[in-house]
Amino acid sequence: MGFCSPVCKVFRRGKYILLFLISLSVLAWIAHLSGETIKDAPVSFATPQALVKGDSLREKLNALAATPDRLITPAPKEECPQESPLLQGALKLSFESSLKLKDVESDNKAVIEGEYEPSDCTARQSVAILIPHRGREKHLLYLLHHLHPFLQRQQLHYAIYIIQQAGDVTFNRAKLLNVGYLEALKDYSWDCFIFHDVDLVPENDHNVYVCDKQPKHLVVGRNATGYKLRYKGYFGGVTAMNKEQFFQVNGFSNNYWGWGGEDDDLRVRVELQKMKIVRPPADIARYTMVFHKRDSGNKINKDRMRLLGRTPLVWRKDGLNSCTYKTMSLERLPLYVNVTVDIGKPLS
Hints:
Belongs to the glycosyltransferase 7 family. This is Beta-1,4-galactosyltransferase. Pfam families: Glyco_transf_7C (PF02709), Glyco_transf_7N (PF13733). The protein has helices spanning about 5-40, 50, 55-65, 100-105, 135-155, 175-185, 245-250, 260-270, 305-310, 310-315, and strands at about 115, 125-135, 155-165, 190-195, 200, 215, 220, 240, 285-290, 325-330, 335-340. By secondary structure, the protein is α/β, with parallel strands linked by helices. The protein starts with a helix and ends in a 6-residue tail after the last strand.
């Protein structure tokens, strides 16, 4: 009994010490876990950018929950195909006397203030259609009726500009087209410009209204000429030039008052710049001309041949850089932008 008593006392003390050490270990372990929790806690309040860059799944999930708007973005549209699947080829045109502007507006509700853009793809070119005009309301109605769906089937981003000549002085188609180019560029940096007579309606939507590497003439034939080119070198009716090409030739001359000569002048300007005019195939580049009598304010320009002979001498200073006019009004109507301008009068 005397020997066991000291030994038992030692074991009892050792047991207490062991329990004490175990308690300290448990406390240390709890403190360690608490420290990790405290250290991790700020992660859930980090900025969305930091969370997205984090390594843990929890951080990424927190980021998605915290910033749902960052992920709700429209998918980028693919570029429209080289050839639109909507093209129908040659169509029979109709010119009903009962047609009303409201009917054309109702048929083209996707056109906003004269502008249209495909909803399912990104157009390959953005095109401004420029139409010089005065007193041809029925012709304009027929053209809009056919041209809007024609251009939409080609999956183009486009806008139609009607450039109205105010007053009753002699008509100047070329100067109005210069005005249209300058005014349209105030709206948008258009890739391509189509210079379009109001009385010519395209028959085949494979005659695509886009610009090429060279100036393009779109009217190879019309019903009034048996669908043949009017004459070799003809560059009138409907032509396409990109922004840089038209700027390079300094646009049209401003001095052709009355009918004729301005399109030949433009052809000379193109040739002086070593450009080559291209045309679509003859069986595609066909137009119906809506017949009409010549306007009293658009008589044949008897001075056109003299002016044409001077083109190589004056083209640098007669054109876009000398085009002066006064804008009377600018209206953004459902089917087109209407620009009414005072372009002055002939010098003599």
